[in-house]
Amino acid sequence: NLLEATDIATIFLDASLRIRRFTSKATEIFPLAQSDIGRPISHFASTLKDVDLRRYTEEVLNDLSKIDTEVRDYEGKIYRMRVRPFRTVKNVIDGVVITFLDISDLKTLLEKEKRLAAVVEDSNDAITLQDPDGAIIAWNRGAEKMFGFPAAEALGKSTFELVPPEERNKMEKLYAGLKKGGDEPIQLITKRLTRDGGTLPVWLTVTVILDDNDQPEYI
Q1: Where are the beta strands (DSSP E) in the chain?
Q2: Which pLDDT tens digit goes with each residue over 7-43?
Q3: Predicted confidence (pLDDT) per residue in 109-157, tens digit
Q4: What integer pLDDT is reported at residue 92 of this predicted model?
Q5: What is the pTM of this model?
Q6: Which residue, 58, 100, 149, 171, is most buried by CB atoms nearer than 10 A?
Q7: Calpha distance 105→140 (Å, rounded)
Q8: What Å distances lie between residue 189 and 120, 204, 212, CA to CA?
Q9: Within a 10 A sphere around the Cβ of 36, how many other Cβ atoms?
């Protein structure tokens, strides 16, 4: 029941690589039925692409290593495959356990985030990330070019240090309002200080990123 509840494809093989048991999720990868228990895993073609399962399992049995790798099936799904030695209660190696965790959605999300991060970093627009109090957490190349501060110098500064005195009261009120919630972007014309002491008029767009509890987490 515990194995089924994890919703992870799991196959137990004995030392001769015969099927000992499996979870129902494993049948999405191997065409297994309960009547197949006791048969060698090599008798079954899987949906996996270019995966020599026998090589992996024999390697684990021979040197008691642990294998953790990514594999794909012919439909493009991505799995994290783990192969581990199976030990009895007397600590004797008696087979292998193979698990397949579907990480397709995670990989897609990570690729999207990677592409988005590249767009933000390479943008000619000055893009910064701040906490709700205005402490600067991220500072892209566009911000370096526009304001003159390198990222190493800008990180940790308060955004209010870059606001001219005549604009500071307006910006403090703006951030106080942002803390109260609301995720609609705010746009306004204001000014910022540059590293060389100059004043730069800017068109500012402020967006609040909310956490899971709908509280402001980043600006």
Answers
A1: 9-14, 19-22, 67-72, 78-87, 93-102, 128-130, 136-139, 186-193, 199-206, 209-210, 216-218
A2: 899 999 998 999 999 999 999 999 999 999 999 998 9
A3: 888 888 888 888 989 999 999 999 999 999 999 999 999 999 999 998 9
A4: 77
A5: 0.60
A6: 100
A7: 28
A8: 21, 6, 31
A9: 17
d(CA 164, CA 174): 15
Q: What is the rounded distance in angstroms from the CA atom of residue 65 to the CA atom of residue 95?
A: 12
166-187: pLDDT as tens digits: 999 999 999 988 888 766 789 9
Length of the chain: 219
Centroid of chain to Cα 59: 30
Distance CA 130, CA 146 (A): 17
Q: What's the burial of 107, exposed, middle or buried (CB within 10 Å: 0-12/13-18/19+)? A: middle
